[in-house]
């Protein structure tokens, strides 16, 4: 790790304060260097240019003595906004909004917007500005889900902010409205009673070389590579899309600038386009390098062990997780929060704060916190002795999550499971802004938590009291789950907003089998081994073993899973993603019952799944992305499954499903392969690809298969810059990272968003500069999945 990074970690008290926000390589910093060709002012306080704005919502709208737009408001309101739930579930106190009608204006000659804005929000950690557009041209904006044409910006309080964002990808041939607003996100302890926003200029600009935001073809004269670098013995490629006069490229050592490798690029036409590939896999000397091809030059990247390449990303992921703590004061983010989220059961109450906020909206999900907790223990226990400082800090953060798992357990099968927030609360129990946490006795949550409790218990070596307690409650929770399963079967579902809502029958059995194996390893009670094997058999009834034939190549695709043993609907993930649980169940059974009569069957299931990953990844080359998978043409006809998988949809989703299916690669008349999921309102694929990456790393460990481990590592590379836009999606790591949708906490070093989406019904990556949920919203679960993959790479390939 670089000395500068070590110094920053030390200055935070080993991540007990947030790491500083890195701006040197951010897109916002790079944007200010782009040449402006022309501009048009829509509003100017100095030149008296003004759109005809109208005010809506909370607060007021005036023009200040300096000619600036002034939008004052209270911090909170004494009631919820019109249309909000009576109990305030998942709502804030409304917003302050001004809008201006546009006369079907054609903005096609402009590709960037610039706004000068000053937030005077006393005590507010993260003033947040929303800019929205309406277009009535060829492509309507917003889309039917209200995602497109909405941009959110984190502002610096008490100073003028130069807000710049590109609109190249925004349909803008008949613009009919622009609006600007800010949220009333509730009272933090430091907030005052009122806040004000000032705007002194709004203008359109035309710039040279706007960012590419859609498709597989990167910008001209751009090298696509892994920003962090490459593990020394894995394939190492970079690539570009433009035709070149030279095919010779060179790799240079950072310190001396000496050429250490010379190679020839070669042309490769793939399903994603025509690329020039720069392969330097032969270079395996540990060090820091940069790449040159013609007039193009990369930034610095590393070659080394997994520990060398990914260590800084672990510290930054840890920083993000720490900054998302709920119920804990985080310097510069918030004071102790959400003490008045109350869970009630059996005439008892608990304060549902703790763990980590789920996302940018600071909601809370038990399962999300539990998964992140397990990942922290996975990462900590994969480290060598020389990484003691990182190991101990990971364990400390894991103990914070573990405390929440224990805290939210009532001890009779019921657990406090989630709360919809999207606001700060005053912390005083009994106020109108209190939130009610959901409480359930669901078999699935108890299975999953039992497995996580048992796993963590098996890793604790220095606290016998905690270890024994986890052993006891893991067994209890497993028995609670079994009791509910026997009553209700796998059809027992939580409410709509729970993160386990989309769980299929086959994934249910995978989770139950894994949990039983974990408890069996702690207790040595044969009845749990039998349960694990029986549930694994039920899970495997939903695995494709015969194979789906590709009519073009006669290739057989098998090893993937269906939602249940009827095999009518293939298992997909479009938002939440837990594909790795299938492989976790198989790995746990193989480890805990190595002499079982079904061992070879289990191994074969891992092998055919691994073979499936190897076959489908060729469809996204040269990118390392694992595709979303195979889809049946008529899956939408299974209405019950369809509405479990896809949230907040209406009848239009049926037509859209068919349109998106047609955009896939036809395997045969009934099956298509999609690179990105078929999805609707909820979009973003980082959790999906990281979950699949974790499945690949588990299969790679079980089979000792280097190719599968490379596929797993490839998902990290996609996130960190090896994507069509050459952008890192981990803020502060790699290069060309952008602001994300982190509404209440603001930008956090190490944050990872939900992930890239697609435009409408297409099957190509879409990554506009616009920040909006769900695709750009920061998501703590992705940091956990990131660590979980890196932990496997450390265990297998990371040692020097």
From TrEMBL:
Annotated ranges, domain Glycoside hydrolase family: 314-410
Sections of the chain in a coiled coil: none
Family annotation (InterPro entries): 6-hairpin_glycosidase_sf, 6hp_glycosidase-like_sf, Cellulase_Ig-like, Glyco_hydro_9, Ig-like_fold, Ig_E-set
SUPFAM superfamilies per record: E set domains, Six-hairpin glycosidases
Protein transport as UniProt keyword: no
Domain Cellulase Ig-like: 229-297
One Pfam family it belongs to: CelD_N
UniProtKB keywords: Carbohydrate metabolism, Polysaccharide degradation
Gene3D superfamilies: 1.50.10.10, Immunoglobulins
Glycoprotein found in the keyword field: no
Family: Belongs to the glycosyl hydrolase 9 (cellulase E) family.
Listed name of the protein: Endoglucanase
Species: Listeria welshimeri
